[in-house]
């Protein structure tokens, strides 16, 4: 058994004890990604607070406090809410959506 330090672009560097029967090239671990660092910070004042209600696949409502400008996908990830975002919010797909109730259209600014 020997110890190998794995180094690959974008991957976690890790010392792994390997046995001569297992090829080293098949052993790697992705690093934890925290996209949207902005979403990992709390609002600085109550004026920045945006209340968001997520409804999960079981119909359970989850209320969280975000801030103006937060990316909703990254905010969901911060709070451990299951939400698929296949393109990681690069606007290349349609797996994450925000549904706005009709009565709120008139009070929201144009995009």
Automatic annotation (TrEMBL):
Its cofactor is [2Fe-2S] cluster. It comes from Nilaparvata bakeri. GO terms for molecular function: 2 iron, 2 sulfur cluster binding; electron transfer activity; metal ion binding. InterPro entries: 2Fe-2S_ferredoxin-like_sf, 2Fe-2S_ferredoxin-type, Adrenodoxin-like, Adrenodoxin_Fe-S_BS, Beta-grasp_dom_sf. One of its GO terms (cellular component) is mitochondrion. The gene is Fdxh. GO terms for biological process: P450-containing electron transport chain. Belongs to the adrenodoxin/putidaredoxin family. The keyword Iron-sulfur applies. SUPFAM superfamilies: 2Fe-2S ferredoxin-like (SSF54292). Residues 56-102 form the 2Fe-2S ferredoxin-type domain. Pfam families: Fer2. PROSITE patterns: ADX (PS00814). Keywords: 2Fe-2S, Iron, Iron-sulfur, Metal-binding. The keyword Repeat does not apply. Gene3D superfamilies: 3.10.20.30. This is Ferredoxin.
């Amino acid at each position: 058994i020997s110890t190998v330090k794995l180094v690959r672009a974008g991957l976690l560097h890790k010392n792994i004890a390997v046995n001569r029967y297992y090829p080293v090239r098949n052993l790697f671990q992705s690093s934890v990604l925290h996209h949207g660092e902005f979403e990992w910070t709390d609002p600085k004042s109550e004026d920045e607070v945006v209340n968001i209600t997520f409804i999960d696949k079981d119909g359970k409502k989850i209320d969280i406090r975000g801030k103006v400008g937060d990316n909703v996908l990254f905010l969901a990830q911060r709070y451990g809410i299951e939400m698929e975002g296949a393109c990681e919010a690069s606007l290349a797909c349609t797996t994450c959506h925000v549904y706005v109730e009709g009565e709120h259209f008139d009070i929201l600014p144009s995009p």
